[in-house]
Amino acid sequence: MIKKQKTITESSIEMREMVMPNHTNSHGTVFGGTVMGWIDIAAAMVAARHCGHPVVTAHIDDIDFIAPIKMGYHVLIQASLNFVGRTSMIVGVKVTSENPTTGESRVTTKAYLTFVALDDLGRPVQVPELTPQNAEEVRRFENAKKRVEMKKKIREAMMKK
Fold it and tell me: 89: closest CA among 144, 142, 34, 156?
């Protein structure tokens, strides 16, 4: 039985990768597409954990590549829900790289992804509500809600032209 409400902590995940030569470009830094793939996988895992259904990526919003990640570095991908609608979920992802020799770390990438939950026939299905538990989670929830509203307004404005 899927719960009607869930907390952000219940579905949040962390995963790690190590940047190998096959992940890197001619500059010795990881390909942006590789990072995007890691982000999509982590976010999909969060969305599926929250809703208990298969999910599909519906939208990738605001992916920011802040700093490069070098070969040999360790990568921490942290993903958690920011907002849920009726059938969709917005997942925030933060990528941090770590120099394994010095222990120095820095945020390298941030992104927001929207997923839709699907039933066994591939149709959108309702997802559990999200219950933020602290001030930071409430702030992220409210910011994501504003992004959804702004995206709707932009879509409507574009359709009028």
Answer: 144
